[in-house]
Specification:
- The chain is mostly helical.
- The protein has four domains: about 100 residues, Cytochrome c-like domain (Cytochrome Bc1 Complex, Chain D, domain 2), CATH 1.10.760.10; about 80 residues, no CATH class; about 110 residues, no CATH class; about 55 residues, no CATH class.
- About 55% of the residues lie in helices and about 0% in strands.
- The structure holds heme C (6 copies).
């Protein structure tokens, strides 16, 4: 009879120990809140909710934890329509107050919603521990550099546009005409007596024509500065810049897959089921989204960037492993109302960057296989590892 008592008190001890551990674990969850992930998840809410300040499409969310308990919020965020339809008095009331606009469902876990709530509670700021401290003047310098970089890019884009509009066509035909006139004179009319004039003009025109033909032939199949009109006037400036929607919200496969992908029309509906009007285009362009959904026909976006079939290119490799920013290859898309291809996507462009760009070698498991290079970096024999050293110029890496 003694034994069970001993084990009972043993169990009791471990029960206390468990509770203590559980308490710390749970409070650990609490302090883990307002992470950068919350900021990212809140992007999806921001279109319709201010934290404080005027009501947008939905009510401002500060003080929400005083109005509602967490269990209610979880249910409402995941499927508000269900809560409203269940007859919940509070839900019905706010639904009616907000012009009966249903809040779209969000596929978030309890922990993710907790995190968002902590982020809201903190006035829309990530917890201090997640903010990398940058000394004051350092931060200023960075800001200045970023502004300068933006300006430079804007200038470059303007230059590119000008270049793109400049066509070699007129020069080509004028030179051809001069060449013909001189040839006719040389063999027929003989108005100009000095033969060296003919020879000089012929040589110069042949050179100019040759140069133009070479340039055009090399660029054949490439489409730098290509900027087609799209079936819907979709502006990256409005979405990515003015409304700060993350690139990965729409191009969600860029980190895991070969393709960055263009979002299906359902993703547009996440917001446009309620945002029915734009400041620039009114209702005409957004109406095309509803039309696509009704007819079941996907929007036929025109692909801007196109590599030939014999080239292998992977976004995951560059965005995830290489940690490159979209702008390094696509330019400042967030300033574009209509997307333009700013780089020529030539083989020289790829290789040039591979020669110059350092890979994130140090603690990247992706590169563990390169023992020899690691040794050399350690011994100081080489200072940095660029993409070409890990195979970035091997023909077979880029060509099938
Ligand atoms: C497309 C617009 C839209 C988006 C996006 C949206 N909401 Fe809402 N939300 C609403 C509307 C409208 C209401 C008012 C209730 C209703 O009409 O159903 C609301 C109500 C709420 C409420 C209750 C507010 C109160 O004062 O009681 C909470 C909490 C909430 N939303 C959280 C979120 C969170 C968290 C997200 C992001 C994960 C989000 N919402 C995204 C439109 C939106
Ligand atoms: C190293 C250069 C590079 C980087 C970095 C890069 N891209 Fe691309 N992107 C390309 C090239 C090259 C293509 C053309 C691919 C093809 O035609 O096969 C492309 C194509 C695309 C397309 C067209 C659809 C597709 O998947 O082919 C989208 C959308 C896109 N990129 C978005 C992005 C976004 C968003 C990012 C940042 C998360 C990004 N890209 C980063 C080079 C890059
Ligand atoms: C995360 C929310 C969100 C998503 C997703 C979204 N939009 Fe928008 N969209 C907005 C907001 C906010 C506006 C700005 C409305 C305004 O002008 O005040 C807007 C504006 C627009 C406009 C009008 C622009 C103007 O100013 O006239 C068009 C057209 C549009 N979106 C198309 C699309 C398409 C197509 C998709 C899907 C590929 C999409 N949107 C996805 C939030 C979103
Ligand atoms: C709200 C959704 C949305 C967001 C946010 C968004 N895009 Fe896009 N993106 C699209 C759609 C839709 C298209 C296809 C229509 C077009 O080309 O304008 C597209 C096209 C592109 C293309 C051209 C693809 C091609 O056909 O070659 C690039 C590059 C691109 N996006 C990069 C970005 C970058 C970089 C960001 C972040 C700064 C971003 N996108 C943010 C929806 C979005
Ligand atoms: C802005 C710089 C940049 C541009 C432009 C660029 N790359 Fe890269 N690329 C990198 C970096 C950095 C790495 C190494 C990191 C990694 O493995 O992703 C890399 C790696 C690669 C690899 C993997 C090599 C290996 O070791 O397996 C391939 C394949 C590749 N790039 C193809 C291309 C192609 C094709 C293009 C042109 C259409 C291109 N890249 C344009 C920066 C660039
Ligand atoms: C970093 C990626 C990369 C590597 C490495 C690479 N290529 Fe290319 N290659 C490309 C791209 C991108 C194109 C398409 C260029 C275009 O459309 O103008 C191309 C085009 C070509 C073409 C077609 C002709 C042309 O200019 O369009 C040939 C042939 C070729 N490559 C051979 C090679 C050989 C041989 C090697 C090895 C010495 C090699 N490539 C290594 C990316 C690469």
């Amino acid at each position: 009879m003694m034994i069970p008592i001993v084990t009972l008190s043993g169990n009791f001890k471990s029960l206390i120990a468990c509770s203590i551990i559980a308490f710390f674990v749970l409070s650990g969850v609490q302090t883990k809140a307002q992470t950068p992930e919350a900021e990212k998840n809140f992007q999806a809410c921001k279109v319709c909710h201010n934290i404080s300040g005027p009501k947008l499409i939905g009510p401002s969310l500060s003080g929400i934890l005083e109005r509602r308990d967490k269990a209610w919020i979880y249910k409402f965020v995941r499927n508000s329509t269900e809560v409203v339809q269940s007859g919940d008095a509070y839900a019905v009331k706010i639904f009616e107050e907000n012009n009966k606009i249903p809040m779209p469902p969000h596929n978030l876990t309890d922990a993710q919603i907790d995190d968002i709530l902590a982020f809201i509670n903190n006035g829309g700021k990530v917890a201090a521990e997640y903010i990398v401290a940058v000394p004051e003047n350092e931060a200023e310098k960075l800001e200045k550099e970023m502004v300068a970089e933006r300006e430079l890019l804007a200038e470059k884009q303007a230059d590119m546009k000008r270049d793109a509009n400049r066509s070699f066509g007129t020069t080509f035909y004028i030179t051809l005409a001069i060449l013909l006139i001189v040839l006719i004179d040389l063999f027929g009319t003989k108005i100009i007596k000095a033969k060296f004039v003919h020879t000089t003009v012929i040589l110069i025109s042949l050179f100019v024509i040759g140069e133009i033909m070479y340039k055009e032939a090399a660029a054949l199949g490439r489409q730098q500065y290509y900027q087609p009109d799209q079936p819907i006037w979709f502006s990256h400036k409005v979405h990515a810049d003015q409304n700060k929607i993350d690139c990965l919200y729409c191009h969600s496969t860029a980190e895991e897959s070969k393709y960055a992908g263009v979002p299906p029309t359902n993703v547009c509906l996440n917001c446009h089921s309620v945002v029915r009007q734009g400041k620039i285009t009114g209702t005409t362009e957004i109406a095309k989204i509803y039309q696509a959904i009704e007819t079941g026909k996907p929007v036929e976006w025109i692909k801007v960037h196109n590599l030939p079939d014999h080239v292998f290119f992977s976004h995951a490799q560059h965005v995830k492993a290489g940690k490159l920013a979209c702008a390094q290859c696509h330019g400042d898309v967030n300033t574009m109302n209509v997307v333009m291809q700013v780089n020529d996507l030539s083989m020289g462009w790829c290789i040039d960057c591979h020669r110059k760009t350092e890979v994130q070698f140090a603690d990247n498991t992706f590169y563990q296989a390169y023992k020899e290079l690691h040794e050399k970096v350690k011994s100081g024999e080489i200072k940095k590892v660029t993409a070409d050293m890990v195979g970035g110029t091997d023909c077979m890496k880029c060509h099938y």
